[in-house]
Design a protein that fits this description.
7-stranded mixed barrel
């Protein structure tokens, strides 16, 4: 794990809401514990509630949330907390490159999977990726 004392939170806004779940996705998480995000990049948020080890590199059970556009550059880390509005939503479990260079899948660990549509997310909703106290 990286030894980062502090990192600027990353902000993003929802640009597309997704309504899809899969039980057999086979996302392959990359071994990297951080990824650089450039201002204006658009990436996909996908949740999982699989109870396998946090370090497991394959994720099958997923719900798709949204595509988000980052409003400034920075670094996102495994373990960062994803905040939707004023509340913590989940934490970053890892990154999947299936669709690169088009976009990266950012996999978010949650207690219960739900799609962006099921959660009533709206276009323009604000997201914040915040360095965990334990990161």
């Amino acid at each position: 794990m990286q030894h980062v004392a502090a990192a600027t939170p990353l902000n993003a806004r929802v640009v597309t809401i997704i309504d899809l779940t899969r039980e057999d996705r086979r996302l392959q998480l990359e071994p990297w514990t951080s990824r650089v995000i450039r201002c204006g990049e658009i990436h996909e948020l996908i949740t999982t509630d699989e109870t396998s080890s946090r370090n497991s590199s394959v994720v099958d059970k997923v719900a798709y949330l949204a595509f988000v556009e980052f409003t400034h550059g920075g670094v996102i880390f495994v373990g960062d907390v994803l905040r939707h509005g004023d509340s913590a939503f989940g934490y970053i479990r890892g990154f999947d490159y299936t669709h690169m260079p088009n976009h990266m899948n950012i996999v978010v660990q949650v207690s219960e999977r739900a799609t962006g549509a099921e959660l009533c997310w709206r276009l323009g909703d604000r997201m914040e990726f915040v360095r965990s106290e334990h990161g």
